[in-house]
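Good morning,

Both structures are done.
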Amino acid sequence: MKKDVVKVAFVCVHNSCRSQIAEALGKRLACDVFESYSAGTETKPQINQDAVRLMKQKYQIDMEKTQYSKLLSDIPPVDVVITMGCNVDCPNLPCKYREDWGLEDPTGKSDEEFAYTIEQIHTKIIELSKRIQEYISV
């Protein structure tokens, strides 16, 4: 019997930067473990252009080809919700498991600060993937 695929939503208010990076890295680094989605309570007309540029440089991922700013209502029901560190009331989304990664929003900051945030997300995606794999195999 095939197990259901775990669905993970990366959530932040505008769904334009950290959650988009997490969706892209989730698809790249953990697609064999979980499906990645991102969403917010508000949308922006486009993904943060610094995030787009730096993700192209570091991972050759063009987030604008497959991703766009979405509302919580635009994604399917999920099993896991990861909030990025909203510093406001984080959006509520029904799920089986939730955690907050408490990441600073690098919008408007230097490339170095963006790169640091991207590295943090990369590490956390790998850790989350391992935890989900361990949980599923139990």
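Second structure follows.
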Amino acid sequence: MLRNSTLIIFIVLCTLSFPAWSQSKSLPETTEGASKVVKAYPNPATSKIYFEIQRNNDKVYEIIVYNFLGKKMDHIKNLAGRTEVPLDNYYSGLYIFQLREKNGTLVESGKFNVVK
């Protein structure tokens, strides 16, 4: 029963995040060969994960990390280049991150897995 309700919550959260994502005017058209702005590695991660900005521009970003249930786990501000995030307070499971510009505009989202 817990797995079913967790899945339902995840689906609802994904559904709610898509309208906000589609309203963003700064997102490029999605194509097969489109390059990502941020790279998260290693995936799966055990003790730390790195977020690396792939495009060399002068923008400053922030990353917000949510657990599978939608609870905010981390908010990393002033992200430029490569940032290491320790996973000491994370449990094993799937996490979703959102890359946002300093003004709050959603640029990209992704996921990573923590295995302990």
